[in-house]
Every structure is written in C-alpha cells, then in structure tokens.
Amino acid sequence: MKFMKLGSRPDTFYTSEDSRCVSSEVSSDFTIQVSGSKYLLHKFPLLSKCLRLQRMCSESPESIIQLPEFPGGVEAFELCAKFCYGITITISAYNMVAARCAVEYLQMAEEVEKGNLVYKLEIFLNSCILNGWRDSIVTLQTTKAFPLWSEDLAITSRCIEAIASKVLSHPSKVSLSHSHSRRVRDDDMSSNRAGASSRGWWAEDIAELGIDLYWRTMIASKSGGKVPASVISDALRVYASKWLPTLKRNRKLVGKKADSDSDSDTDSSSKHRLLLESIISLLPAEKGAVSCSFLLKLLKATNI
C-alpha cells in the first residue's frame, strides 16, 4: 500500500481537560468546536490555509467557530490542522477520502496558498493511489462513508475507472501489493488453467465491494466490450458465492424474531432482492457464457 508523508515537525497536539491543544509559546487565540470536541488553536497557521475559516471569522464575531457536520469528524479535522502547523501527517488509501472531503470543506485550495493540501492530495490520488490495484479498491470502499462528497469530488468515479482499466491486464502488469502479488503468482502456478486464471485474477478482490459499487465497477469493466463474457460470468459467480449465503443466513435469523422486528425483515428482503436483481442484470447475454449450475443457484435464491 502506498502512503505519503507531509510536514516535518513532531506531533505537539495534546489533550488538556476537555480540549485538544497545541504545545506553543504563543497562547491560543482560536477555538474550534468539531463534532463535540473543542480545539484551542492559533489563527495564523489555520487562516493562512483555510478559506472557509477565514470567511467564518470575518462574518461572525463569535469567539468559537462551530463545525458540527465536519466530514471525517475530529480525525480528519486534526489531520488538516496538523498540516497547517507543519506537523508530520500520513496519507494512505485508508484516510484519503476523509482527508480529501475535509480539505474541500475547509477550502484549502491553491487560491489560498500555493502547495496547499487540496493540490497535494490530488497529486497523490491521481499519480499513486489510482495506479495501484489494492489502493484503488480500498479508496473506493471508503467512499461509502462520504457518498455525496465522493460523488461531487469525482473520487468514486475515478476509482471505478481505475479499477475497470486494470481488469484486462495480466496481474504481472498491475501494481499490486506484495502479499497480493504473491497470492496471484501462487494461484497461477498451482492452477492447471493458468491462462484462464490470470484473466479473472481480479474477481475475488472486487467481490469485497458492496453491491452498488460492485455493479458500477462491473458496468465500467464491461463497457469496452473487451472482457470475455465467460470471465464476467465467473466474476459474478464469485460475488454471488460470497454474498448470497450471507444474506440467506441473515434472512433465516430475521425470520425467527418477533413481529416487532418486521422492519428488519423488510430491510433484509430488500437487500436480498437488490443483490439478485443487480447480479442478474450483469449476466452476459452470449450463449453458453453462463453455466447452468450458476443459473440454477440464482433461480433457487429467488425463491428464498
């Protein structure tokens, strides 16, 4: 997994009673409330990089700035604040989306200061994370926590396009994590059908996605018409095998509950139906592309 370190100063944030503070010879002159947490900070480092905070300070005489619905919560805010102070921060696929949404909220753009955090995150996202297979999938998964922000910033679509562009490649030509590269290599060596195996090497990885993101990723992968129908079918079989048994088990558990849990039963049924409908809509139309056993499994699942 790729990561980026920014800043060089040691971490001087600390907790004092009910507040987060920065160790400094200069007294705090700026109080920010984020999701119930209070930060005692300094105006200069933050206002010099955050246009939103500049405007809020100029428009309101209040001594405390309220940021109640901050994307990413206190962790994302503190990461941005540390960047403003020059304190070392680490960005990876796991916190990229939260950080990118947070800096957009704070308006930490180039117009405010050259080399600001929006610019640095975009460079890292486009040149590193989206070039990596595992990084792209992890980043796409984390967009679920920030659906509207991720769509507006085109993070979701960029991740999907990056993943779709790699499914036609042999795994040896894709930037994989070390452990994943070794697993793919071992699978190819142990398979009697190494050629076929390498064509669908990606199926298990994208099967980790929820059905909405999986559906969009598969549509993007199919759109070029270059992925063989049999490979698409195999990938759908992997996904169905992973998720259909889980939903079936959940439905049985829900069915044993009292009538007061009817809402949960309805929700489980809706998820089951959505999963089936999405998988069926992705089935290739080519004759013989889908095995009879897989079709029978889907038919059986519709009757649960």
Automatic annotation (TrEMBL):
Superkingdom of the source?
A: Eukaryota
Recorded hits in Pfam families, A to Z, give: NPH3 (PF03000)
Q: Which residues form the NPH3 domain?
A: 200-304
| Pathway the protein takes part in | Protein modification; protein ubiquitination
SUPFAM superfamilies found in the cross-reference section: POZ domain
InterPro entries membership: NPH3/RPT2-like, NPH3_dom, SKP1/BTB/POZ_sf
Keywords for the protein's UniProt record, in alphabetical order: Ubl conjugation pathway
What family is this?
A: Belongs to the NPH3 family.
Full protein name: BTB/POZ domain-containing protein
Task: Tell me the organism.
Answer: Cardamine amara subsp. amara
